[in-house]
């Protein structure tokens, strides 16, 4: 399914060593022409519309509803509340406690309010407009308790993560305190990052329809088997009674990975009405219908000898979570393992407030924790009067400093060297404020990017037909990551077909299960199992006689109608029973720093130029260069777009994005895309992506590391380091804002 | 959005009278039961959010044959109320002779919005205060008089440091109005009692204790046009808008500046401020301080200080005092270097 228009318009990087072909996106034409049907596009006959009523308070309870005016509107079918839903939805556990839920508050389970924006009623009507109008007419009488909004709010409770999540262990080695005390050069600095929301353009739609006892769910998802199994538990039915369909996802970034409250509510509504129900929450409601990246604080202490070698490193992280759920990203797992250092300490503290439960958002752990680590490294470079690239070089390591295990491969320094050269780093005058262009202060900064190489069990079915076509079936997820394209590529390569002859079916629980599209595991996991199925086809058709022959010819020779192979693939280090967990929608990614015998990460380096107006101090980023080494790159076109997207988001994360929280109400304030800022085209001028060739035969047979998230990691630190270089002002709180620069604080 | 009656105006007078005679004549903006529909980019947004609930919406876009033209003569500039933002922004004579007007429009919103939105609607756009725009916040005096103001001790980074009251600190968000203020524009209105013209500076009201009353327009008043008098300062004018991102964002601080310089000395300076005040804001004291002086770092800084002398910052918007001053200084210095 080649896309001629795009292949001529977009100049994709030329294939290089261990780099796949820049095949145009399999789904490009369907998406550009609008023929790709997203969850809310699916037209179900006689559909009813749902509109959510969400809580205006963050803590307390609903004393009563006055539904008279809403119910009186012509076209209103029903209004679900805790008072009338009964026990239609059963409680399920939070995912770190073995359950499927991204938020363990029972949907419409009681009058209690656990967070602002919690769904408290669902209005059902014959049209969207009537449902919305009626929802606005629902009157709620609340009993309000004083909520805790965030860090240090009265009533917020600090807990060591290790006491709340048995799987968490704070990485440490050696004697940090002693080594820090005796280090000749030290930095001891604190940073913070704000709450952020994914805001994918596609809203959090759900459509449910029942046919007898069978339920079909159309919902954009990064984990269709997770939804299927979790929803079955909530509804008290068999997973086999549920089909989840999600062939296209209009942006997810982690927000569509979990089982949110809405799915069960729509399913129950559809059952109650006896007709399909469609819910498309508003952009505003999306801020609490799904998850978010919660705000974090950090204290980083670094001690080094005068030649820059780290002697002591400590990273203490603090993360806000909800009252019921101990969500944490615990980025110390990665941040303590980047550099050679004999003495390391770390801790993670979660802070419980009256907020919705946070969740995964692109590089959940690394994005905030590397802002802290990589800013602190820059501060250390300044304290040492050392070039920041040299500081990374002298502290490079080929083994995990915590456990001493070897990295399967690590090309951090080649990434720094390639990016530095492309950027022109050698021309940098290290003195802050020294590089100026008329009214603009120019600053250059850099930072390390890294992301754990993880995979999970996956299954797939591949069929080869005598007409020279093939079909790949797996319930992997196309979230813009390019999975359709790389799945077709790997099958085409293994079966010896042109890529345009391969059909790929994804995102449907009628297909063999694939793991969640998260943790950058999709390409490595799904391509590995597809390759395995293709190899099985080859083996069946060759019978040992024609091992490299033309498979289609062999198929025809045998007079077969088709040949089909189902395969299961389990990565190195996967837990026992990984396949069963996959089928139950609970595949556990493994890899990164979790293995017993080795450590595996992808690495990168990012260089940023900022311009800060000398007088009014607005910050602009005219140029950013990132070099990444992530093993085999399946498709340089889709990879380029992943890296670039990550870097652009990194610019936004550094300068624009922040979910504002009302400290009194513990509620989000800027819940729309005019006030929740993300970069616009004018903010993104020159983005250069360099793919550094790397081979890693250990991570998986194809040597794929996964690239979905690394592009955003470290970008915000590189921007902050560049702002320091431009202005001499060290901004330690994201987003980096004009507010601090003009007041000189 | 609630059901409403939709009708279309056929002429300015008809539209005005239809509204004025509606049974429950509205008393306050935002709570009135009838509204004109121009580009709809403010009105329809706020109706969907349930912030505005007009019972009747009168579409005035059909009036653009009458009130949709731009006339530039030596007697000044006349802009019909239904002129699209984009049309005025790109008009060559406005770009050349009234750069501050063109720039304030070009730097506003997005291309799509500018193609929809009208100048009449633009000057009446409503605040972006999030507590106002989301009805689930109970305390907002502007939306619900007497209910309090959640922004006073809430998230108020965007809010005003000038012209605020204890009842409301919401920023007037627009850009174009600043340029109109600086150029002493006037507004043509047709009301129940017939046509009248008022200074643009008399259109908006300070919040005081009645922040829900935003303008001096009476129920049913229709803006038909805007007039900008000529002057030696209109060419030497500019609009400087400072924001977190490069485009498509409301101002954190902005300055509309127009200068009449003779031999490097100020004969007249016009300064209007945006992003920092509750209404379009003219800094007359600062202007007076510049009269008879050259524009340089010291005089500009002095003017900027005077412009913000009365500011009352809150927890998160104190930076606007510093930023606003820097914006004024930069705008003045830049305007002074413009070619005659
Ligand atoms: C995402 C976004 C970003 C924006 N960014 C900016 C920005 O950066 N800078 C900026 O300046 N603006 C910005 N705007 C605001 C935009 O410029 C205004 O919404 C627009 O100018 C309003 O014009 P309209 O014709 O659409 O008005 P409408 O929405 O049709 O009307 C607005 C109000 O004025 C009344 N009205 C309209 N015309 C008349 C008339 N002739 N007489 C009497 N009453 C009338 C209506 O009844 C209504 O109450 C932005 C808007 C959005 C949605
Ligand atoms: S500042 Fe004004 S608009 Fe905002 S909440 Fe207060 S009263 Fe309402």
From TrEMBL, chain B:
Any Pfam family hit: FAD_binding_5
Entry keywords, A to Z: FAD, Flavoprotein
UniProt entry tagged with the keyword Iron: no
MF-aspect GO terms: FAD binding; oxidoreductase activity
InterPro entries according to UniProt: CO_DH_flav_C (IPR005107), CO_DH_flav_C_dom_sf (IPR036683), Diverse_Substr_Oxidored (IPR051312), FAD-bd_PCMH (IPR016166), FAD-bd_PCMH-like_sf (IPR036318), FAD-bd_PCMH_sub1 (IPR016167), FAD-bd_PCMH_sub2 (IPR016169), Mopterin_DH_FAD-bd (IPR002346)
Highest taxon in the source lineage: Bacteria
Residue stretches making up the FAD-binding PCMH-type domain: 1-233
PANTHER family according to UniProt: OXIDOREDUCTASE (PTHR42659:SF1), XANTHINE DEHYDROGENASE SUBUNIT C-RELATED (PTHR42659)
UniProt-recorded name of the protein: Xanthine dehydrogenase family protein subunit M
């Amino acid at each position: 399914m080649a896309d001629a228009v795009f292949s001529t318009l977009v100049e994709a990087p030329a294939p290089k060593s261990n780099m796949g072909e820049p095949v145009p996106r399999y789904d490009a034409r369907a998406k550009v022409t609008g023929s790709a049907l997203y969850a809310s596009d699916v037209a179900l006959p006689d559909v009813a519309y749902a509109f959510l009523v969400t809580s205006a308070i963050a803590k307390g309870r609903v004393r009563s509803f006055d539904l008279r005016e809403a119910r009186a509107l012509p076209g209103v079918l029903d209004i679900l509340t805790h008072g009338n839903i009964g026990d239609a939805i059963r409680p399920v556990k939070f995912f770190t406690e073995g359950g499927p839920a991204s938020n363990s508050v029972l949907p419409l389970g009681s009058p209690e309010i656990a967070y602002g924006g919690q769904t408290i009623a669902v209005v059902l009507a014959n049209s969207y407009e009537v449902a919305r109008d009626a929802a606005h007419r629902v009157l709620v009488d609340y009993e309000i308790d004083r909520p805790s909004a965030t860090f240090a709010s009265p009533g917020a409770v600090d807990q060591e993560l290790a006491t709340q999540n048995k799987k968490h262990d704070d990485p440490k080695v050696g004697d940090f305190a002693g080594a820090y005390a005796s280090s000749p050069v030290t930095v001891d600095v604190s940073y913070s990052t704000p709450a952020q929301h994914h805001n994918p353009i596609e809203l959090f739609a759900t459509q449910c329809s029942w046919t007898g006892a069978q339920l079909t769910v159309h919902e954009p998802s990064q984990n269709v088997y997770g939804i299927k199994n979790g929803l079955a538990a909530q509804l008290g039915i068999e997973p086999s009674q549920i089909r989840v369909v999600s062939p296209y996802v209009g942006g997810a970034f982690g927000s569509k990975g979990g089982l949110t409250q809405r799915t069960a509510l729509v399913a129950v509504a559809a059952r109650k009405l006896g007709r399909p129900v469609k819910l498309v929450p508003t952009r505003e409601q999306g801020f609490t219908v799904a998850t978010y990246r919660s705000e974090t604080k950090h204290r980083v202490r670094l001690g080094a000898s005068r030649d820059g070698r780290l002697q002591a490193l400590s990273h203490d992280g603090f993360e806000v979570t909800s009252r019921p759920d101990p969500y944490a990203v615990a980025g110390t797992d990665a941040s303590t393992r980047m550099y050679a250092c004999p003495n390391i300490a770390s801790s993670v503290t979660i802070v419980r407030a009256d907020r919705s439960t946070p969740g995964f958002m692109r590089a959940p752990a690394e994005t905030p924790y590397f802002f802290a680590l990589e800013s602190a490294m820059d501060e250390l470079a300044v304290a040492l009067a050392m070039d920041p690239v040299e500081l990374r070089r002298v502290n490079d390591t080929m083994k995990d400093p915590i456990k001493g295990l070897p990295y399967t491969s690590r090309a951090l320094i080649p990434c720094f060297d390639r990016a530095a050269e492309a950027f022109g780093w050698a021309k940098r005058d290290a003195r802050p404020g020294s590089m100026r262009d008329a009214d603009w202060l120019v600053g250059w900064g850099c930072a390390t990017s890294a992301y754990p190489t993880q995979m999970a069990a996956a299954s797939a079915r591949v069929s080869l037909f005598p007409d020279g076509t093939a079909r790949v079936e797996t319930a992997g997820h196309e979230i813009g990551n390019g999975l359709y394209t790389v799945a077709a590529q790997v099958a085409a390569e293994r079966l010896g077909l042109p890529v345009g002859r391969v059909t790929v079916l994804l995102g449907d629980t009628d297909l063999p299960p694939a793991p969640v599209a998260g943790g950058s595991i999709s390409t490595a996991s799904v391509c590995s199992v597809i390759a395995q199925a293709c190899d099985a086809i080859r083996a069946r058709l060759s019978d040992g006689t024609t091992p490299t022959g033309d498979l289609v010819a062999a198929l025809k020779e045998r007079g077969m109608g088709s040949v089909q192979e189902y395969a299961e693939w389990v990565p190195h280090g996967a837990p026992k029973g990984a396949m069963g967990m996959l089928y139950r929608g609970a595949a556990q990614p493994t890899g990164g720093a979790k293995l017993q015998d080795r450590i595996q990460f992808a690495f990168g380096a990012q260089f940023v130029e900022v311009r800060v107006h000398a007088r009014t101090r607005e910050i602009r980023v005219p140029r950013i260069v990132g070099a990444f080494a992530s093993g085999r790159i399946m498709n340089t076109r889709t990879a380029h777009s992943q890296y670039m997207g990550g870097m652009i988001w990194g610019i936004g994360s550094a300068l624009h994005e922040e979910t504002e929280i009302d400290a009194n109400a513990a509620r989000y304030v800027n819940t729309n895309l005019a006030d929740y800022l993300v970069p616009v085209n004018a903010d993104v001028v020159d983005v250069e992506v360099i793919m550094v060739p790397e081979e890693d035969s250990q991570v998986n047979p194809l040597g794929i590391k996964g690239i979905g998230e690394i592009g955003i990691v470290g970008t915000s630190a590189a921007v902050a380091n560049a702002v320091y270089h431009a202005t001499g002002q060290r901004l330690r709180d994201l987003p980096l804002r004009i507010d601090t620069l003009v007041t000189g604080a | 959005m609630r059901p409403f009656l939709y009708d279309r105006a056929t002429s300015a007078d008809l539209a005005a009278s239809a509204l004025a005679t509606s049974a429950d004549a509205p008393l306050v903006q935002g709570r009135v039961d009838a509204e004109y529909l121009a580009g709809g980019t403010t009105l329809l947004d706020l109706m969907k959010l349930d912030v505005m609930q007009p019972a009747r919406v009168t579409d005035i876009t059909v009036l653009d044959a009458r009130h949709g033209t731009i006339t530039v003569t030596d007697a000044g500039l006349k802009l019909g109320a239904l002129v699209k933002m984009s049309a005025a922004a790109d008009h060559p004579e406005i770009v050349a002779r009234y750069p501050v007007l063109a720039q304030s429009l070009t730097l506003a919103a997005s291309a799509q919005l500018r193609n929809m939105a009208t100048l009449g609607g633009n000057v009446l756009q409503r605040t972006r205060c999030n507590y106002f725009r989301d009805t689930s916040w109970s305390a907002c005096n502007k939306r619900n008089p007497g209910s309090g103001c959640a922004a006073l001790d809430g998230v108020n980074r965007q809010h005003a440091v000038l012209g605020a009251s204890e009842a409301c600190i919401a920023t007037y968000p627009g850009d174009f109005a600043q340029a109109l203020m600086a150029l002493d524009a006037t507004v043509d209105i047709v009301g129940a009692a017939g046509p009248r013209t008022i200074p643009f500076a008399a259109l908006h009201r300070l919040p005081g204790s009645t922040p829900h009353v935003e303008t001096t327009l009476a129920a049913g008043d229709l803006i038909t046009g805007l007039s900008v008098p000529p002057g030696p300062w209109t060419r030497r004018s500019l609009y400087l808008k400072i924001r977190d991102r490069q485009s498509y964002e409301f101002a954190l601080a902005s300055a509309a500046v127009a200068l009449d310089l003779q031999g490097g000395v100020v004969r007249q300076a016009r300064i209007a401020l945006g992003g920092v005040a509750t209404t379009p804001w003219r800094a007359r004291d600062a202007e007076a301080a510049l009269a008879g002086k050259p524009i340089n770092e010291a005089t500009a800084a002095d003017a900027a200080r005077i412009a913000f002398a009365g500011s009352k910052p809150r927890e998160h918007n104190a930076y606007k005092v510093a930023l606003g001053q820097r914006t004024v200084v930069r705008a003045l210095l830049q305007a002074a270097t413009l070619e005659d």
